[in-house]
Specification:
Keywords: ATP-binding, Nucleotide-binding, Transport. Residues 1-226 form the ABC transporter domain. This is ABC transporter ATP-binding protein. One of its GO terms (molecular function) is ATP binding. It comes from Streptomyces virginiae (Streptomyces cinnamonensis). The protein is an alpha/beta fold. The chain has two domains: 2-201, Rossmann fold; 211-292, no CATH class. It contains nine helices and 13 strands. The chain has a six-stranded mixed β-sheet with strand order 5-6-7-3-8-9, with helices on both faces. It has a four-stranded antiparallel β-sheet with strand order 11-12-10-13. Strands 2-1-4 form a three-stranded antiparallel β-sheet, covered by helices on one side. Helix 4 (105-114) packs antiparallel against helix 5 and helix 5 packs parallel to helix 6. It is elongated. It starts with a strand and ends in a 12-residue tail after the last helix.
Length: 293
């Protein structure tokens, strides 16, 4: 998926503005960001549910929802994991088969059986986690090249979230589907995603393979010092100071050690929140060396 200066407006309301990003193929991509960052709008544009006001977006080499062939390549599960309350699980599978030329009936039926769900059960009587599993089944049984999931586990309890994500990883392992998963729950993304994109106010703050991002971000604690005294290879993301101590979040591709430092790796949640808070501070934060690179 490639977006260039992508924007969406509803009258005077700006839902997405000047968004440029790239989603690599063959990855499980975590899309994170605060409320209002434009995540849902971006994913709806990628599915072709809405059209852009400005800029461009290309998905799997074509314009979203440009025709039946393009629609067949993309599976989508929205925030509320929608199902039809009056239809049974079996009805959902029959509907999926009629609407999707590449429908894999065996995959759909096997997933429902493995989940221990009764095909005759009405969707309106299912738990939130079960409805999410049915929605995921319908999305993956069309055998998409790209599966887009917009906050699919936000309303689920911890056990249902874990079961949903385990099911997702089984699908990825078996079929090699590219996945874009948006979530506020960074701990969930850390378990399943191998690539991360952080979106704040429509702009990408960090993007890259999770292993690479974690290997190049550190928390550096030392006696109080100015950021300008750190090695040039260290890019300062955030800094805090007390009377005697300085703490820096730094990004560096090269290992630099000093006996006077305590250098610790960041977990993914700390990394994301650091970049997010820095971006939201905007021009109000104190300039550091990183701002001039």
């Amino acid at each position: 998926m490639e977006a260039r200066a992508l924007g969406k407006r509803y009258g005077r309301k700006v839902a997405l503005s000047d968004c440029t990003l790239s989603v690599p193929a063959g990855r499980v991509v975590g899309l994170v960001g605060p409320n209002g960052a434009g995540k849902s709008t971006l994913l709806q544009l990628a599915c072709g549910l809405i059209g852009p006001t400005s800029g461009s977006i290309e998905v799997l080499g074509g314009r979203p929802a440009s025709g039946p062939a393009q629609l067949a390549k993309v599976g989508f599960v929205a925030q509320d994991t929608p199902t039809y309350a009056g239809l049974s699980i079996a009805d959902h599978l029959r509907l999926g088969a009629r609407l999707n030329p590449g429908w894999d009936a065996r995959l759909a039926e096997d997933r429902i059986r493995q989940l221990g769900l009764d095909p005759a059960q009405k969707a309106g009587r299912l738990s939130g986690g079960q409805r999410a599993q049915v929605a995921l089944t319908v999305a993956v049984a069309k055998r998409p090249e790209l599966l887009i999931l917009d906050e699919p586990v936000a309303a689920l309890d911890p056990l249902a979230r874990r079961e949903f994500l385990q099911s997702l990883m089984e699908v990825v392992a078996e079929h090699g589907t590219t996945v874009v998963l948006s979530s506020h729950l960074v701990s969930d993304l850390e378990r399943v995603c191998d690539h991360l994109i952080s979106l704040v106010a429509s702009r990408v703050q960090i993007a890259g393979d999770v292993d690479d991002l974690l290997a190049t971000h550190f928390r550096l604690t030392t006696t109080r010092r100015d950021a300008s005294t750190l090695p040039e290879v260290m890019r300062i993301v955030q800094e805090t100071h007390t009377e005697r101590q300085s703490t820096f979040i730094v990004r560096s591709d090269k290992a630099v050690q000093d006996p006077s430092w305590v250098l610790e790796p960041l977990n993914l949640e700390d990394l994301v929140l650091t970049h997010m808070s820095r971006a939201r501070a905007g021009s109000g934060h104190r300039p550091t060396r990183e701002d001039h690179r």
